[in-house]
Amino acid sequence: MIISGVLEALRIVFGLIFLLFVPGYTLILALFPKKEELSFMERIGFAGVLSIVADLLTTLFIDLVLHIPTTAVNIFVALLSLSALALIIWRIEILLIKMLEKREQSKEGVEAKNEED
């Protein structure tokens, strides 16, 4: 009996964290991939607000546009998919940023070498 109460409390805590933080934080990572663009507190604040907006819009989308019944499992899967998509976009952005920085460094190296000659 005690174990089921503890598991129920953990389910609620982790469910609220997932619902009120994770989707927004992944979207913030996709929107602002560089760490210096936002401070840590700004990221946390924006993540909370953006999570609520993402939750509402995702639920409305799957209900009104896709005509899928609004159940807890469907909402969880939709938000998990949204978060995964945002993480994939974030990783692609990071890779592109690194490639562009390497290209700029190589151009600067070639220009510096040409100036020496």
Automatic annotation (TrEMBL):
It holds the Pfam family DUF1616. The keyword Transmembrane helix applies. InterPro entries: DUF1616. Keywords: Membrane, Transmembrane, Transmembrane helix. It comes from the Archaea. The chain crosses the membrane at residues 12-32, 44-66, 72-97. Coiled coil: none annotated. Residues 8-88 form the DUF1616 domain. This is DUF1616 domain-containing protein. It comes from Candidatus Syntropharchaeum butanivorans. The lineage of its organism: Archaea, Methanobacteriati, Methanobacteriota, Stenosarchaea group, Methanomicrobia.
